[in-house]
Amino acid sequence: MGSETPLRLPIIDFSKPDLLKPGTPEWELVKGQVRQALEEFGCFHALLDQTHLELRKEIIGAMEDLFDLPPQAKMRYPSKNFFDGYMGPRPTAPLHEMLGISHATIPENVEAVTNTLWTQGNTSFRRIILESFGLENHIDSHMESSHYVFRAIKYKEPQSPAKMEIGVGAHVDANILTTLYGNEVDGLEVQTKDGKWIHVQQPPNSSTIIMGETLSVMLNGRMIVPNHRVMMSEGNYKARYSAGLFSTLKGGYEGKTLKEMVDEDHPLLFKPFDYLEYLTHYREKASQGIFLTLRDYCSLASKASN
């Protein structure tokens, strides 16, 4: 009796120079692949060219130096909100450290790296998604309404004899779209539509693209927003480093479902929302042990936002 082939996230080739040019045959091919992947899994691997691989190595190396700083140095930049600052290990995530840098405060040298490595790709992914639904007229306003948050993340190797330890618990991303790069240490897991967990093995020269709730609300729930987590095994004798770019709505911009996504077969599911107000509400609820997703917050079928 043969064993089942393990599930893998789709791998989509973005390594060809002409690929990121709208209207080319390669663009049209990839557009269909991206939509299919997001409808089925809510995420995929984007295969990149060699330039990105070398630049990623530099970023991961810089992150190792950053997290090796003494605690008192890192705490000089405390986390004051969901965007900026250092957050150290805590009881619910003892292996996890994070430093967030919002677009407005990125130093010039870091901004140059993120523009090269992240922003073009993140923008292209979102353009492809909107085009796949015939929403070309909304692309410019969508890009104008968003900015980027860079996060450097470290998951320490497990210290206990347990076989697995939680790096960060299961969650969905509330932002628009997430782009993740990691070192060679695995740990990311993604939950499928039927509840199974996929152990993600990211190809070396790739990023992992994850659908966020903000974009799902814009598309009236047409795309999967995957539950994901990081699990560190005792067999990992090295820390996992992950660098992420999170596209988010700017303050003052209303998040809402695009009218083209509503029809008889797809009735409106969500009311408009202010992203910063949601984050404030989330923080208040989280202090009470209630973790409210953005979709629950603005769902027309739920009173959870009250």
UniProtKB/TrEMBL annotation:
Keyword Acetylation: no
GO MF entry, a single one: metal ion binding
Domain Isopenicillin N synthase-like Fe(2+) 2OG dioxygenase: 151-246
Keyword Oxidoreductase: yes
Keyword annotations: Dioxygenase, Iron, Metal-binding, Oxidoreductase
Non-haem dioxygenase N-terminal domain boundaries: 9-89
Name listed for the protein in its UniProt record: Oxoglutarate/iron-dependent dioxygenase
Source species taxonomy: Eukaryota, Viridiplantae, Streptophyta, Embryophyta, Tracheophyta
